[in-house]
Amino acid sequence: MMPSDRPADSSDAARSGQPHPTDTPEEPTTVSAPPLAFGMGNPTADCIADSAGGLTFDLDAPEHSGTADHWSAALVLRRRAGAADEGEEAEEIRLPLTPNGDGRLRAVLPSTVALPEGRWDVHVAQGDEEPVRLVPGLLDLRSLVDRRPGPSTSPLAVRIPYATKHGNLSLRSWLRGPHAEAGDLLLDDDALTVHGVLYRVEDPEAWLADAVVEARCRRDADLVATVPLTADGADFTFTLPYAELSDEWRGGLDVWDLTLRRPEAADDKDPVRIARILDDVVDKQQIFAYPPRAIDTPYAAAQAGPYYTADNDLSVRIDERPPAAR
């Protein structure tokens, strides 16, 4: 499947009347090196990810190598403004660059440095010069594959470097706690079954004992479907019948966002979004595509199926069935 320049979720957001905060003009293609036609002449950075969420950058920047020990040499991360941030100054984090002993410059982003959720563009700066975008070299993301965080109640930090469609280096950052990681999805003709794991709570089994799964419609926040789950330690499983979502469907696109919630818990806070972020795939829409299933609804013939949003959150779409499939 060839990747598109823009995430499919941006059209979903437009059709549901809700702009998406990551609907930006420069989105990822793959996590490998970009086409050589892009970014020629810009300095290159290799990046190594560790399993805790930290990143190490090694730069080829010959024009700065003679002054690498100067205090002002820095790796600059700038968070892209979303729809809700228009008019505000871009958030920026500067990391010092120092020689790494191999004739290159190194910057380290520890997992303990909070990086708010979003897309961060990576630059190199020297003194008062305008920062220059970096081109990705080797992206070593092996430690992110099948990542299973250890026990903790602190927010889970996930950072995935990637090459944008313009050939620049960017990061996608998540900071979540608690976090519900989606695993295997089983698609039946009339229901979706999801297996997942809950992280960043003190006692996952006790937390899940009070939890249910909620599907909330973006078109109308008052439309909510609730289904039970089963738990084994931190692992959970639930089945969501499409009939629970399609009774109120009246044509067009309906998107239902999936969360865990503890309605009876006194200390219940915001619902926990179900997402898939614990691997090396920055944009799940391009990799995990699920064919919709034909369903019958009280209104008309439709189709339903799961998908991952631009934030790698798990949602379900109910949409009109194409004429050829009726």
UniProtKB/TrEMBL annotation:
Superkingdom as given in the UniProt entry: Bacteria
Spans annotated as Disordered: 1-44
Name used for this protein in its record: Uncharacterized protein
Organism: Streptomyces syringium
